[in-house]
Amino acid sequence: MMGNILVLAEHRQGSLREITFEMLAIAPQLSSDMGGEAVVLLIGSGVDEMAVKIASYGVKVLVIDDPLFEDFNGEKYQKVISAVIDDLKPSVVMTGHTAQGVDFMPPLAVEKRLPLVMEAIALEYTDGALKATRQLYSGKVNAIVAFKPADTYLVTIREGIAEAPEITTAGPVEKINTPLKEDLDYRKFVEYIEAEVGDVDITQSDILVAIGRGLKEDKNLPLIEELAKAVKADIAGSRAATDAGWISQDRQVGTSGKTVKPKLYIAMGISGAFQHVAGMKGAKTVVAINKDPEAPIFNVADYAIVEDMFKVVPKLTEKLKELKS
Amino acid sequence: MKTFVCIKYVPDTSEAEVKVNPDGVTVDSSRFSFDINDADNYAVEESVLIKEARGGDITVASIGPKQSDVMIRMAMAKGCDQAIRVEDDRIAGHDPLIVARVLAGAIKGHECDLVLTGCMAGDDGHMATGAALAEELGFNHATMVKKLEILDGKVKAYRELEGGLMEVVELALPAVLTIQTGINEPRYAPIRGIREAQKKELKVVNLEDLGLDPNDVDAEASGVILEQLYIPEIESAAEFIEGEPDEKAEKLASILVKGGLV
Prior knowledge:
The complex is a heterodimer. Chain A has helices at residues 18-23, 27-33, 48-55, 74-88, 101-112, 221-230, 239-243, 274-280, 309-324; strands at residues 5-8, 11-12, 15-16, 38-44, 60-65, 92-96, 116-120, 122-126, 129-136, 141-147, 153-157, 173-175, 187-193, 207-211, 234-237, 264-268, 285-290, 303-306. Chain A is an alpha/beta fold. The longest helix of chain A has 16 residues, at 309-324. Chain B is α/β, with parallel strands linked by helices. Chain B has helices spanning 38-54, 69-77, 96-107, 129-137, 191-197, 245-258; strands spanning 2-7, 9-11, 34-36, 57-63, 82-86, 114-118, 140-151, 154-160, 166-172, 175-179, 202-205, 224-230, 239-240. Strand 10 of chain A pairs antiparallel with strand 12 of chain B, so a sheet runs across the interface.
Protein backbone atom coordinates (compact mmCIF):
# COMPACT_ATOMS: atom_id res chain seq x y z
CA MET A 1 0.00 0.00 0.00
CA MET A 2 1.10 3.57 -0.67
CA GLY A 3 3.22 4.87 2.14
CA ASN A 4 3.50 1.58 3.98
CA ILE A 5 6.84 0.52 5.36
CA LEU A 6 7.61 -3.16 5.65
CA VAL A 7 10.08 -3.67 8.49
CA LEU A 8 11.84 -7.00 8.57
CA ALA A 9 12.19 -8.38 12.10
CA GLU A 10 15.64 -9.80 12.81
CA HIS A 11 16.22 -12.67 15.18
CA ARG A 12 18.86 -15.26 15.83
CA GLN A 13 19.08 -18.34 18.01
CA GLY A 14 15.60 -17.76 19.38
CA SER A 15 15.93 -14.08 20.27
CA LEU A 16 14.88 -10.91 18.53
CA ARG A 17 17.83 -8.66 17.84
CA GLU A 18 17.78 -5.08 19.12
CA ILE A 19 17.79 -3.60 15.60
CA THR A 20 14.20 -4.83 15.22
CA PHE A 21 13.02 -2.49 17.97
CA GLU A 22 15.31 0.31 16.82
CA MET A 23 13.58 0.26 13.45
CA LEU A 24 10.25 0.59 15.28
CA ALA A 25 11.50 3.96 16.50
CA ILE A 26 11.94 5.07 12.88
CA ALA A 27 9.38 3.34 10.67
CA PRO A 28 6.05 4.44 12.24
CA GLN A 29 6.85 8.17 11.97
CA LEU A 30 8.34 7.87 8.49
CA SER A 31 5.41 5.81 7.20
CA SER A 32 3.01 8.33 8.64
CA ASP A 33 4.91 11.10 6.81
CA MET A 34 4.51 9.00 3.69
CA GLY A 35 0.80 8.50 4.27
CA GLY A 36 0.89 4.88 5.32
CA GLU A 37 1.72 2.66 8.24
CA ALA A 38 4.55 0.47 9.46
CA VAL A 39 4.05 -3.28 9.20
CA VAL A 40 6.54 -5.80 10.54
CA LEU A 41 7.32 -9.01 8.70
CA LEU A 42 8.55 -11.82 10.93
CA ILE A 43 9.95 -14.88 9.20
CA GLY A 44 10.83 -17.89 11.35
CA SER A 45 9.80 -21.17 12.87
CA GLY A 46 7.92 -21.28 16.15
CA VAL A 47 7.99 -17.51 16.56
CA ASP A 48 4.63 -16.83 18.24
CA GLU A 49 6.20 -15.24 21.28
CA MET A 50 8.37 -12.99 19.16
CA ALA A 51 5.33 -11.88 17.19
CA VAL A 52 3.50 -10.91 20.35
CA LYS A 53 6.50 -9.03 21.63
CA ILE A 54 6.85 -7.00 18.42
CA ALA A 55 3.10 -6.30 18.29
CA SER A 56 3.32 -4.84 21.80
CA TYR A 57 5.03 -1.84 20.22
CA GLY A 58 1.74 -0.99 18.54
CA VAL A 59 2.48 -2.27 15.04
CA LYS A 60 0.83 -4.85 12.84
CA VAL A 61 2.91 -8.01 12.57
CA LEU A 62 2.76 -10.38 9.61
CA VAL A 63 4.13 -13.79 10.50
CA ILE A 64 5.43 -16.47 8.20
CA ASP A 65 5.94 -19.40 10.54
CA ASP A 66 7.33 -22.52 8.92
CA PRO A 67 10.05 -25.10 9.69
CA LEU A 68 11.72 -23.97 6.44
CA PHE A 69 12.81 -20.86 8.35
CA GLU A 70 14.31 -22.57 11.40
CA ASP A 71 17.62 -20.87 10.62
CA PHE A 72 18.49 -17.75 8.67
CA ASN A 73 19.10 -18.26 4.98
CA GLY A 74 19.57 -15.18 2.82
CA GLU A 75 18.31 -16.90 -0.32
CA LYS A 76 15.07 -17.94 1.39
CA TYR A 77 14.57 -14.47 2.82
CA GLN A 78 15.06 -12.96 -0.62
CA LYS A 79 12.42 -15.24 -2.15
CA VAL A 80 9.93 -14.56 0.62
CA ILE A 81 10.38 -10.79 0.69
CA SER A 82 10.23 -10.66 -3.10
CA ALA A 83 6.83 -12.36 -3.02
CA VAL A 84 5.62 -10.18 -0.16
CA ILE A 85 6.61 -7.04 -2.10
CA ASP A 86 4.53 -8.24 -5.07
CA ASP A 87 1.61 -8.90 -2.77
CA LEU A 88 1.64 -5.90 -0.44
CA LYS A 89 3.44 -3.32 -2.57
CA PRO A 90 5.03 -1.48 0.34
CA SER A 91 6.65 1.88 -0.39
CA VAL A 92 9.71 0.99 1.68
CA VAL A 93 11.31 -2.27 2.77
CA MET A 94 13.53 -1.67 5.77
CA THR A 95 15.98 -4.12 7.35
CA GLY A 96 18.93 -3.86 9.68
CA HIS A 97 22.38 -3.22 8.20
CA THR A 98 23.54 -6.46 9.73
CA ALA A 99 25.09 -9.73 8.65
CA GLN A 100 21.54 -10.72 7.69
CA GLY A 101 20.48 -7.54 5.90
CA VAL A 102 23.62 -7.24 3.80
CA ASP A 103 23.20 -10.82 2.66
CA PHE A 104 19.80 -10.54 0.97
CA MET A 105 19.00 -6.86 0.34
CA PRO A 106 21.47 -6.24 -2.55
CA PRO A 107 20.40 -9.35 -4.48
CA LEU A 108 16.76 -8.48 -3.81
CA ALA A 109 17.36 -5.01 -5.26
CA VAL A 110 18.91 -6.53 -8.38
CA GLU A 111 16.13 -9.08 -8.77
CA LYS A 112 13.34 -6.53 -8.44
CA ARG A 113 15.21 -3.68 -10.12
CA LEU A 114 14.54 -1.49 -7.09
CA PRO A 115 16.72 1.31 -5.72
CA LEU A 116 18.76 0.53 -2.62
CA VAL A 117 20.50 2.59 0.05
CA MET A 118 22.78 0.77 2.44
CA GLU A 119 23.35 1.65 6.08
CA ALA A 120 21.19 4.75 6.41
CA ILE A 121 21.69 6.70 9.63
CA ALA A 122 18.71 8.97 8.95
CA LEU A 123 15.72 8.98 6.62
CA GLU A 124 13.50 11.88 5.66
CA TYR A 125 10.46 12.19 3.46
CA THR A 126 9.83 15.70 2.15
CA ASP A 127 8.02 17.00 -0.91
CA GLY A 128 7.34 13.50 -2.10
CA ALA A 129 10.96 12.42 -2.05
CA LEU A 130 12.68 9.96 0.27
CA LYS A 131 16.22 10.91 1.24
CA ALA A 132 18.72 8.97 3.29
CA THR A 133 21.84 10.06 5.11
CA ARG A 134 24.69 7.58 5.15
CA GLN A 135 28.40 7.69 5.88
CA LEU A 136 31.52 7.30 3.79
CA TYR A 137 35.20 6.95 4.69
CA SER A 138 34.51 5.28 8.05
CA GLY A 139 32.29 8.10 9.22
CA LYS A 140 34.48 11.01 8.13
CA VAL A 141 32.03 12.12 5.44
CA ASN A 142 28.22 12.13 5.40
CA ALA A 143 26.26 11.71 2.19
CA ILE A 144 22.70 12.66 1.42
CA VAL A 145 21.28 10.22 -1.08
CA ALA A 146 17.92 10.79 -2.73
CA PHE A 147 15.83 7.96 -4.08
CA LYS A 148 14.42 8.52 -7.54
CA PRO A 149 10.67 7.80 -7.66
CA ALA A 150 10.08 4.04 -7.52
CA ASP A 151 7.32 1.67 -6.43
CA THR A 152 9.39 0.41 -3.52
CA TYR A 153 12.52 1.75 -1.87
CA LEU A 154 14.94 -0.65 -0.19
CA VAL A 155 17.00 0.52 2.74
CA THR A 156 19.19 -1.03 5.44
CA ILE A 157 19.46 0.81 8.76
CA ARG A 158 22.61 1.13 10.82
CA GLU A 159 22.40 -0.51 14.22
CA GLY A 160 22.22 1.75 17.24
CA ILE A 161 20.97 4.94 15.57
CA ALA A 162 17.66 4.87 17.46
CA GLU A 163 16.37 3.56 20.75
CA ALA A 164 13.49 1.14 21.07
CA PRO A 165 10.24 3.07 21.57
CA GLU A 166 7.85 2.63 24.50
CA ILE A 167 5.50 -0.33 24.55
CA THR A 168 1.94 0.73 23.75
CA THR A 169 -1.44 -0.77 22.78
CA ALA A 170 -0.62 -4.01 20.99
CA GLY A 171 -1.09 -4.22 17.26
CA PRO A 172 -2.60 -7.20 15.45
CA VAL A 173 -0.67 -10.37 14.60
CA GLU A 174 -1.62 -11.97 11.30
CA LYS A 175 -0.26 -15.24 9.94
CA ILE A 176 0.38 -15.48 6.23
CA ASN A 177 1.30 -18.52 4.16
CA THR A 178 4.87 -19.04 3.16
CA PRO A 179 5.44 -18.17 -0.48
CA LEU A 180 8.40 -20.59 -0.37
CA LYS A 181 7.21 -24.19 -0.27
CA GLU A 182 10.38 -26.25 -0.56
CA ASP A 183 13.82 -26.23 0.94
CA LEU A 184 16.69 -25.01 -1.24
CA ASP A 185 19.42 -27.42 -2.21
CA TYR A 186 21.93 -24.77 -3.30
CA ARG A 187 22.36 -22.95 -0.02
CA LYS A 188 22.17 -24.80 3.26
CA PHE A 189 22.64 -23.66 6.83
CA VAL A 190 25.14 -25.94 8.57
CA GLU A 191 25.74 -24.64 12.07
CA TYR A 192 26.64 -21.77 14.32
CA ILE A 193 30.10 -21.63 15.85
CA GLU A 194 30.41 -19.61 19.05
CA ALA A 195 33.25 -17.13 19.49
CA GLU A 196 36.41 -18.52 21.05
CA VAL A 197 37.06 -17.76 24.68
CA GLY A 198 40.47 -16.25 25.37
CA ASP A 199 42.75 -15.82 28.37
CA VAL A 200 41.23 -12.51 29.41
CA ASP A 201 37.57 -11.53 29.33
CA ILE A 202 37.80 -7.87 28.33
CA THR A 203 34.12 -7.32 29.10
CA GLN A 204 35.12 -7.64 32.78
CA SER A 205 38.15 -5.33 32.64
CA ASP A 206 38.13 -2.08 34.65
CA ILE A 207 40.63 -0.41 32.39
CA LEU A 208 41.27 -1.11 28.73
CA VAL A 209 44.10 0.21 26.63
CA ALA A 210 42.90 -0.17 23.05
CA ILE A 211 44.96 -0.04 19.90
CA GLY A 212 44.06 0.44 16.26
CA ARG A 213 45.64 0.84 12.88
CA GLY A 214 47.78 3.69 14.24
CA LEU A 215 50.04 1.17 16.01
CA LYS A 216 51.46 0.52 12.54
CA GLU A 217 53.77 -2.42 13.42
CA ASP A 218 53.92 -5.15 16.02
CA LYS A 219 57.32 -3.95 17.12
CA ASN A 220 55.47 -1.03 18.71
CA LEU A 221 53.47 -3.36 20.96
CA PRO A 222 55.87 -3.23 23.96
CA LEU A 223 55.15 0.48 24.26
CA ILE A 224 51.49 -0.30 24.76
CA GLU A 225 52.13 -3.24 27.03
CA GLU A 226 54.19 -1.04 29.29
CA LEU A 227 51.43 1.56 29.50
CA ALA A 228 48.87 -1.17 30.22
CA LYS A 229 51.08 -2.59 32.95
CA ALA A 230 51.54 0.83 34.54
CA VAL A 231 47.79 1.24 35.03
CA LYS A 232 46.89 -2.46 35.42
CA ALA A 233 44.88 -2.42 32.22
CA ASP A 234 44.08 -5.16 29.75
CA ILE A 235 44.86 -4.63 26.09
CA ALA A 236 42.05 -4.57 23.55
CA GLY A 237 41.73 -3.19 20.05
CA SER A 238 39.86 -2.57 16.85
CA ARG A 239 39.34 -4.92 13.93
CA ALA A 240 42.48 -3.54 12.33
CA ALA A 241 44.49 -4.65 15.38
CA THR A 242 42.98 -8.14 15.21
CA ASP A 243 43.52 -8.46 11.47
CA ALA A 244 47.15 -7.45 11.88
CA GLY A 245 47.58 -10.10 14.55
CA TRP A 246 48.53 -7.60 17.28
CA ILE A 247 45.74 -8.81 19.55
CA SER A 248 43.75 -12.04 19.59
CA GLN A 249 40.20 -12.17 18.26
CA ASP A 250 38.65 -12.33 21.74
CA ARG A 251 40.11 -8.89 22.51
CA GLN A 252 38.41 -7.18 19.57
CA VAL A 253 35.98 -4.43 20.53
CA GLY A 254 33.09 -3.61 18.21
CA THR A 255 30.09 -4.97 16.37
CA SER A 256 31.86 -8.14 15.28
CA GLY A 257 33.66 -8.47 18.61
CA LYS A 258 32.91 -7.56 22.21
CA THR A 259 30.84 -4.80 23.75
CA VAL A 260 32.74 -3.41 26.73
CA LYS A 261 31.86 -1.00 29.51
CA PRO A 262 35.09 -0.42 31.44
CA LYS A 263 35.63 2.44 33.87
CA LEU A 264 38.38 3.77 31.62
CA TYR A 265 38.99 3.16 27.92
CA ILE A 266 42.14 4.58 26.38
CA ALA A 267 41.86 4.50 22.57
CA MET A 268 45.14 4.96 20.74
CA GLY A 269 45.47 5.22 16.99
CA ILE A 270 41.82 4.24 16.61
CA SER A 271 39.88 6.43 14.17
CA GLY A 272 36.55 5.45 15.70
CA ALA A 273 34.60 3.92 12.86
CA PHE A 274 31.02 3.18 13.86
CA GLN A 275 31.72 -0.55 14.10
CA HIS A 276 34.28 0.07 16.83
CA VAL A 277 32.45 2.83 18.69
CA ALA A 278 29.35 0.62 18.97
CA GLY A 279 31.39 -1.68 21.18
CA MET A 280 32.92 0.87 23.55
CA LYS A 281 30.66 3.90 23.83
CA GLY A 282 29.35 2.52 27.12
CA ALA A 283 32.75 3.06 28.78
CA LYS A 284 32.52 5.43 31.75
CA THR A 285 35.49 7.54 30.74
CA VAL A 286 37.08 7.54 27.30
CA VAL A 287 40.51 8.93 26.48
CA ALA A 288 41.34 9.19 22.78
CA ILE A 289 44.73 9.83 21.23
CA ASN A 290 44.76 10.25 17.46
CA LYS A 291 46.70 12.46 15.11
CA ASP A 292 43.67 13.25 12.92
CA PRO A 293 41.69 16.08 14.57
CA GLU A 294 38.59 14.98 12.64
CA ALA A 295 38.75 11.38 13.85
CA PRO A 296 35.23 10.28 14.84
CA ILE A 297 36.63 8.70 18.03
CA PHE A 298 36.75 12.22 19.53
CA ASN A 299 32.93 12.28 19.41
CA VAL A 300 32.80 9.76 22.23
CA ALA A 301 35.90 10.92 24.12
CA ASP A 302 35.98 12.66 27.49
CA TYR A 303 39.65 13.56 27.17
CA ALA A 304 41.26 14.02 23.80
CA ILE A 305 44.80 14.43 22.57
CA VAL A 306 45.40 15.27 18.92
CA GLU A 307 48.89 13.89 18.44
CA ASP A 308 50.88 11.02 17.04
CA MET A 309 50.46 8.34 19.71
CA PHE A 310 54.16 7.52 19.65
CA LYS A 311 54.99 11.05 20.75
CA VAL A 312 52.70 10.77 23.75
CA VAL A 313 52.68 7.21 25.05
CA PRO A 314 56.25 6.88 26.42
CA LYS A 315 55.97 10.07 28.45
CA LEU A 316 52.45 9.18 29.54
CA THR A 317 53.65 5.82 30.87
CA GLU A 318 56.60 7.41 32.61
CA LYS A 319 54.48 10.07 34.27
CA LEU A 320 51.78 7.60 35.33
CA LYS A 321 54.40 5.38 36.96
CA GLU A 322 55.86 8.38 38.76
CA LEU A 323 52.52 9.70 40.02
CA LYS A 324 51.31 6.31 41.15
CA SER A 325 54.48 5.39 43.05
CA MET B 1 39.00 -23.80 -10.27
CA LYS B 2 38.41 -20.68 -12.34
CA THR B 3 38.31 -17.74 -9.99
CA PHE B 4 37.59 -14.09 -10.49
CA VAL B 5 38.69 -11.66 -7.82
CA CYS B 6 37.13 -8.19 -7.91
CA ILE B 7 39.19 -5.41 -6.38
CA LYS B 8 38.90 -1.67 -5.92
CA TYR B 9 41.46 1.10 -5.79
CA VAL B 10 40.63 3.28 -2.78
CA PRO B 11 42.22 6.19 -0.91
CA ASP B 12 43.72 5.55 2.49
CA THR B 13 41.90 7.98 4.76
CA SER B 14 42.50 6.18 8.05
CA GLU B 15 44.65 8.96 9.48
CA ALA B 16 43.92 11.77 7.06
CA GLU B 17 41.49 14.61 7.11
CA VAL B 18 38.93 14.38 4.31
CA LYS B 19 37.68 17.49 2.51
CA VAL B 20 34.68 17.82 0.20
CA ASN B 21 35.27 19.47 -3.19
CA PRO B 22 33.30 22.62 -4.12
CA ASP B 23 31.06 20.46 -6.35
CA GLY B 24 29.67 19.03 -3.12
CA VAL B 25 29.55 15.46 -4.38
CA THR B 26 33.19 14.38 -4.51
CA VAL B 27 36.02 14.48 -1.99
CA ASP B 28 39.41 16.02 -2.58
CA SER B 29 41.58 12.94 -2.94
CA SER B 30 44.64 14.74 -4.32
CA ARG B 31 46.58 14.31 -1.08
CA PHE B 32 45.67 10.70 -0.46
CA SER B 33 47.66 7.65 -1.27
CA PHE B 34 45.61 5.02 -3.06
CA ASP B 35 45.91 1.28 -2.80
CA ILE B 36 43.89 -1.90 -2.92
CA ASN B 37 40.83 -1.85 -0.68
CA ASP B 38 41.69 -3.64 2.56
CA ALA B 39 39.10 -6.44 2.34
CA ASP B 40 39.88 -6.94 -1.37
CA ASN B 41 43.50 -7.55 -0.43
CA TYR B 42 42.36 -10.50 1.68
CA ALA B 43 40.20 -11.68 -1.23
CA VAL B 44 43.26 -11.69 -3.51
CA GLU B 45 45.23 -13.70 -0.94
CA GLU B 46 42.38 -16.18 -0.54
CA SER B 47 42.14 -16.67 -4.30
CA VAL B 48 45.88 -17.37 -4.47
CA LEU B 49 45.68 -19.81 -1.54
CA ILE B 50 42.90 -21.70 -3.35
CA LYS B 51 44.91 -21.79 -6.55
CA GLU B 52 47.96 -23.06 -4.69
CA ALA B 53 45.93 -25.81 -3.05
CA ARG B 54 43.80 -26.90 -6.00
CA GLY B 55 45.29 -25.42 -9.14
CA GLY B 56 43.34 -23.24 -11.51
CA ASP B 57 43.41 -19.77 -12.79
CA ILE B 58 42.65 -16.33 -11.35
CA THR B 59 41.40 -13.28 -13.20
CA VAL B 60 41.44 -9.87 -11.53
CA ALA B 61 38.48 -7.65 -12.38
CA SER B 62 38.47 -4.00 -11.44
CA ILE B 63 36.78 -0.76 -12.40
CA GLY B 64 39.13 2.17 -12.17
CA PRO B 65 41.60 4.58 -13.67
CA LYS B 66 44.97 3.88 -15.27
CA GLN B 67 46.72 4.61 -11.97
CA SER B 68 45.15 1.49 -10.49
CA ASP B 69 47.21 -0.70 -12.83
CA VAL B 70 49.88 -0.64 -10.09
CA MET B 71 47.44 -2.38 -7.74
CA ILE B 72 46.38 -4.86 -10.41
CA ARG B 73 50.00 -5.72 -11.27
CA MET B 74 50.63 -6.29 -7.56
CA ALA B 75 47.75 -8.80 -7.40
CA MET B 76 49.22 -10.54 -10.45
CA ALA B 77 52.64 -10.54 -8.77
CA LYS B 78 51.08 -12.50 -5.92
CA GLY B 79 49.72 -15.15 -8.25
CA CYS B 80 46.73 -13.87 -10.21
CA ASP B 81 47.06 -14.81 -13.87
CA GLN B 82 45.40 -12.07 -15.88
CA ALA B 83 43.33 -9.00 -15.40
CA ILE B 84 40.55 -6.99 -16.87
CA ARG B 85 40.19 -3.35 -15.98
CA VAL B 86 37.07 -1.45 -16.93
CA GLU B 87 37.67 2.23 -17.48
CA ASP B 88 34.67 4.27 -18.43
CA ASP B 89 33.57 7.65 -17.10
CA ARG B 90 29.94 6.88 -17.78
CA ILE B 91 29.68 4.29 -14.98
CA ALA B 92 27.67 5.57 -12.00
CA GLY B 93 30.18 4.45 -9.40
CA HIS B 94 28.17 5.81 -6.46
CA ASP B 95 25.62 3.00 -6.85
CA PRO B 96 26.85 -0.48 -5.89
CA LEU B 97 24.07 -2.05 -7.98
CA ILE B 98 25.52 -0.37 -11.06
CA VAL B 99 29.05 -1.38 -10.12
CA ALA B 100 27.84 -4.97 -9.76
CA ARG B 101 26.21 -4.81 -13.20
CA VAL B 102 29.47 -3.68 -14.80
CA LEU B 103 31.54 -6.32 -12.98
CA ALA B 104 29.03 -8.95 -14.09
CA GLY B 105 29.56 -7.73 -17.64
CA ALA B 106 33.27 -8.33 -17.23
CA ILE B 107 32.77 -11.85 -15.89
CA LYS B 108 29.89 -13.12 -18.06
CA GLY B 109 30.99 -15.16 -21.01
CA HIS B 110 34.03 -16.48 -19.17
CA GLU B 111 34.26 -19.80 -17.43
CA CYS B 112 33.93 -19.08 -13.72
CA ASP B 113 33.45 -21.26 -10.62
CA LEU B 114 34.11 -18.75 -7.90
CA VAL B 115 34.14 -15.00 -7.46
CA LEU B 116 35.82 -13.43 -4.46
CA THR B 117 35.67 -9.79 -3.45
CA GLY B 118 36.01 -7.78 -0.27
CA CYS B 119 32.89 -7.58 1.88
CA MET B 120 33.19 -3.80 2.19
CA ALA B 121 35.01 -0.95 0.50
CA GLY B 122 36.86 1.46 2.75
CA ASP B 123 35.61 4.49 0.84
CA ASP B 124 31.87 4.19 0.31
CA GLY B 125 31.27 1.17 2.54
CA HIS B 126 27.98 -0.09 1.09
CA MET B 127 28.64 -3.81 1.67
CA ALA B 128 26.45 -4.49 -1.35
CA THR B 129 28.50 -5.01 -4.50
CA GLY B 130 29.43 -8.67 -4.04
CA ALA B 131 25.96 -9.91 -3.15
CA ALA B 132 24.43 -7.85 -5.97
CA LEU B 133 27.02 -9.28 -8.36
CA ALA B 134 25.93 -12.81 -7.41
CA GLU B 135 22.37 -11.99 -8.42
CA GLU B 136 23.52 -10.43 -11.69
CA LEU B 137 25.47 -13.60 -12.50
CA GLY B 138 22.83 -16.01 -11.23
CA PHE B 139 25.38 -17.43 -8.75
CA ASN B 140 24.94 -18.40 -5.13
CA HIS B 141 26.57 -16.21 -2.55
CA ALA B 142 27.60 -15.72 1.04
CA THR B 143 28.69 -12.43 2.56
CA MET B 144 31.26 -11.57 5.26
CA VAL B 145 33.21 -14.80 4.90
CA LYS B 146 35.96 -15.29 7.50
CA LYS B 147 36.92 -18.86 6.54
CA LEU B 148 36.17 -21.09 3.59
CA GLU B 149 36.62 -24.66 2.47
CA ILE B 150 36.24 -25.75 -1.13
CA LEU B 151 34.45 -29.09 -1.38
CA ASP B 152 33.44 -31.11 -4.41
CA GLY B 153 31.24 -28.75 -6.42
CA LYS B 154 30.48 -26.85 -3.23
CA VAL B 155 31.97 -24.34 -0.87
CA LYS B 156 31.61 -24.23 2.87
CA ALA B 157 31.62 -20.60 3.97
CA TYR B 158 31.98 -19.35 7.53
CA ARG B 159 30.13 -16.05 7.79
CA GLU B 160 31.14 -13.63 10.53
CA LEU B 161 28.08 -12.42 12.40
CA GLU B 162 27.77 -9.83 15.14
CA GLY B 163 29.47 -10.57 18.44
CA GLY B 164 32.03 -12.97 16.99
CA LEU B 165 29.49 -15.71 16.19
CA MET B 166 30.06 -17.64 12.96
CA GLU B 167 27.34 -18.98 10.68
CA VAL B 168 28.46 -21.89 8.53
CA VAL B 169 26.67 -22.30 5.20
CA GLU B 170 27.18 -24.64 2.28
CA LEU B 171 26.76 -23.29 -1.23
CA ALA B 172 26.74 -25.02 -4.58
CA LEU B 173 29.30 -23.58 -7.00
CA PRO B 174 29.49 -21.30 -8.87
CA ALA B 175 29.33 -18.80 -6.06
CA VAL B 176 30.32 -15.30 -5.04
CA LEU B 177 31.89 -14.92 -1.61
CA THR B 178 32.49 -11.53 -0.03
CA ILE B 179 35.61 -11.79 2.07
CA GLN B 180 36.00 -10.29 5.52
CA THR B 181 39.37 -8.93 6.65
CA GLY B 182 41.40 -11.25 8.86
CA ILE B 183 40.52 -14.42 6.90
CA ASN B 184 44.21 -14.93 6.10
CA GLU B 185 47.54 -13.10 6.18
CA PRO B 186 48.02 -11.31 2.87
CA ARG B 187 51.50 -11.95 1.53
CA TYR B 188 53.95 -9.45 0.15
CA ALA B 189 54.52 -9.82 -3.54
CA PRO B 190 57.75 -11.73 -4.25
CA ILE B 191 60.34 -9.93 -6.39
CA ARG B 192 60.15 -12.62 -9.05
CA GLY B 193 56.40 -12.31 -9.09
CA ILE B 194 56.64 -8.57 -9.63
CA ARG B 195 58.81 -9.17 -12.70
CA GLU B 196 56.50 -11.86 -14.04
CA ALA B 197 53.42 -9.71 -13.47
CA GLN B 198 54.66 -7.23 -16.06
CA LYS B 199 54.29 -9.91 -18.74
CA LYS B 200 50.80 -11.00 -17.73
CA GLU B 201 47.81 -9.80 -19.70
CA LEU B 202 45.98 -6.73 -18.41
CA LYS B 203 43.08 -5.96 -20.67
CA VAL B 204 41.61 -2.46 -20.51
CA VAL B 205 38.03 -2.28 -21.72
CA ASN B 206 35.11 0.12 -21.91
CA LEU B 207 31.37 -0.51 -21.74
CA GLU B 208 31.02 -1.25 -25.45
CA ASP B 209 33.84 -3.80 -25.25
CA LEU B 210 31.86 -5.61 -22.56
CA GLY B 211 28.68 -5.49 -24.61
CA LEU B 212 27.04 -3.29 -22.00
CA ASP B 213 24.58 -0.58 -22.92
CA PRO B 214 25.80 2.68 -21.33
CA ASN B 215 22.17 3.55 -20.63
CA ASP B 216 22.06 0.60 -18.24
CA VAL B 217 24.94 1.72 -16.07
CA ASP B 218 25.09 5.52 -16.15
CA ALA B 219 23.77 8.01 -13.61
CA GLU B 220 20.37 7.96 -15.32
CA ALA B 221 20.16 4.20 -14.82
CA SER B 222 20.80 4.47 -11.09
CA GLY B 223 17.83 4.56 -8.76
CA VAL B 224 19.60 6.92 -6.40
CA ILE B 225 21.17 10.37 -6.65
CA LEU B 226 24.15 11.35 -4.56
CA GLU B 227 22.93 14.83 -3.66
CA GLN B 228 25.46 16.12 -1.24
CA LEU B 229 28.54 15.24 0.74
CA TYR B 230 29.46 17.06 3.91
CA ILE B 231 31.80 16.66 6.82
CA PRO B 232 29.79 15.75 9.92
CA GLU B 233 30.42 18.10 12.79
CA ILE B 234 32.52 16.63 15.52
CA GLU B 235 30.04 16.75 18.36
CA SER B 236 32.74 16.24 20.88
CA ALA B 237 32.19 17.07 24.50
CA ALA B 238 35.81 16.09 25.10
CA GLU B 239 38.33 18.21 26.92
CA PHE B 240 41.09 18.62 24.35
CA ILE B 241 44.45 18.58 26.10
CA GLU B 242 46.77 21.10 24.47
CA GLY B 243 50.51 21.74 24.49
CA GLU B 244 53.69 20.10 23.29
CA PRO B 245 53.55 16.29 23.12
CA ASP B 246 55.32 15.88 26.47
CA GLU B 247 53.06 18.42 28.12
CA LYS B 248 49.99 16.68 26.78
CA ALA B 249 51.21 13.37 28.18
CA GLU B 250 51.94 14.88 31.58
CA LYS B 251 48.61 16.66 31.76
CA LEU B 252 46.73 13.51 30.83
CA ALA B 253 48.65 11.45 33.40
CA SER B 254 47.79 13.89 36.12
CA ILE B 255 44.10 14.03 35.10
CA LEU B 256 43.91 10.24 35.21
CA VAL B 257 45.66 9.91 38.56
CA LYS B 258 44.00 12.88 40.30
CA GLY B 259 40.60 11.87 38.97
CA GLY B 260 41.06 8.42 40.46
CA LEU B 261 40.65 6.88 37.03
CA VAL B 262 43.76 4.72 37.31
